[in-house]
Specification:
four-stranded parallel sheet, 424 residues, alpha/beta, 8 strands
Length: 424
């Protein structure tokens, strides 16, 4: 990796804390990912992206901003209509979160009784540890839970933050509210970029974002086969990196990987023995570098074949309709996508239970791990409905409530091993 210290320093990154955070990553990544047997050759690209995730990609974004009309927008959520950012020539990127390192920093400005994802994300900004926060012109938040909604008020003290109000139901009034929010964000982007978003520009942006969703669908289709041609850890890593990488390049490289996986399927090659217990993880998102659950499951003899989460199927299953040609029709299609995503922020949210049951069949799942971060009330409460539906369908399920630390890893490994043994 090149020396990016001056770039980080110029951005305002706290070099001491940043060094401390990155120091264990190469060894951890080597143990979890590179050491896996029979990995697809196509994973070398994603290894490279990881090795440069705080370096080359940040530099690319900085170089892009040589044109002042091209804005970098940070976001935490799949509901943010990134197509409006892409239509102005800008980039919409994920932000750091998912690490225990920044949780204590986040707790200096947030209550301890709050989900680790929010504390970790805010800790990265407050501690000056995430170059993506520093390169972002502003952050787009959304009201998917009360914790995030209030945390954005704190974040705004440290970084310009724009919040979109997501409705909690899907009635006509809610649809109208969200459409207005999408229009307001379009106005925001046009003002920031000094450009007008035309139907032609939005058509290209929708296709760019949809192509990335389509290739992720293709990747997940490959995971439906037994033996599975790629580990759950690698598939989850690819989805996490989709939030950061250049969308066109990501689509090209993932397309090449999918072709390799499909060749493996034809030959009957897998990374786990045929018949290994197949696990669906459902619940709270797992932002980079949250790999704990996948590692525990796959080091215990199971294989993760699908993630029903915002860092899984919720991210790419719903496409934006590409047939509209006028701007009002396109804006309507853009707003409709969010309303078709079965996030636990909605009430009622029976569609998510239907999704879980559908995916159990599509991915030939043997058991479900219901993953919920501590203090994540929406997903924690929905466990009751998911458990009931899965039990009625005769599908074993285990609930895991955890955080980003390794303190409970031994205990979780014991529980997962017992669960996998039951599935055999």
């Amino acid at each position: 990796m090149s020396d990016y210290r001056k770039m980080w320093q110029d951005l305002g990154v706290n070099l001491e804390k940043h060094d401390e955070f990155l120091a264990p990553v190469p060894s951890l990544y080597g143990d979890l990912f590179v050491s896996q047997q029979n990995r697809p050759e196509g994973m070398k690209y994603f290894d490279f992206v990881m090795s440069e995730v705080h370096g080359l990609r940040v530099k690319e974004l900085l170089d892009m901003k040589d044109d002042p009309s091209k804005k970098v927008v940070g976001a935490f959520c799949v509901f943010v209509p990134e197509e409006l950012v892409l239509a102005t020539g800008g980039a919409c990127i994920g932000l750091c979160g998912g690490a225990q390192y920044s949780v204590p920093i986040g707790e200096k400005v947030l209550p301890r009784a709050m989900c680790p994802l929010i504390k970790s994300s805010l800790g990265f900004k407050v501690g000056g540890v995430c170059p993506y926060f520093e390169v972002a012109d502003f952050v787009v938040g959304e009201t998917t839970c009360d914790g995030k909604k209030k945390a954005y008020e704190v974040l705004n003290e440290y970084h310009p933050t724009y919040v979109m109000e997501l409705p909690q139901k899907r009635d006509q009034a809610d649809k109208e509210l969200w459409l207005k929010e999408v229009y307001a964000f379009k106005d925001k982007m046009e003002a920031e970029a000094g450009k007008t978003i035309t139907a032609e520009k939005l058509t290209a942006a929708v296709k760019l974002a949809n192509d990335r969703r389509r290739v992720l669908q293709r990747l997940y289709d490959a995971r439906k086969v037994d033996p599975v041609p790629i580990s759950g850890k690698d598939a989850a890593l690819i989805t996490q990196l989709a939030f950061f990488d250049d969308p066109a390049r990501f689509t090209e490289k993932t397309t090449a990987l999918c072709a390799e996986l499909e060749q493996r399927i034809e030959k009957g090659e897998g990374v786990f023995p045929k018949g290994a217990p197949r696990i669906l993880i459902t619940g709270t998102p797992m932002p980079l570098p949250s790999w704990k659950m996948h590692n525990i499951i796959e080091s215990s003899g199971g294989v993760v074949v699908c993630e029903e989460s915002c860092t899984g199927t919720r991210y790419f299953e719903t496409l934006v309709d590409e047939t509209p040609t006028t701007l009002p029709e396109q804006m309507e299609a853009l707003s409709q996508r969010a309303l078709n995503i079965n996030c636990a922020c909605y009430t009622p949210n029976t569609g998510r239970i239907d999704d879980i049951l559908r995916m159990v069949k599509e991915y030939n799942v043997d058991g479900v791990v219901y993953y919920s971060l501590q203090f994540c009330h929406t997903y924690g409460i929905e466990y009751r409905a998911a458990e009931k539906a899965l039990q009625q369908a005769g599908v074993p399920v285990i609930r895991i409530e955890t955080d980003y630390s390794d303190e409970d890893s031994g205990q979780l490994q014991t529980r997962i091993q017992a669960f996998l043994e039951m599935l055999k």
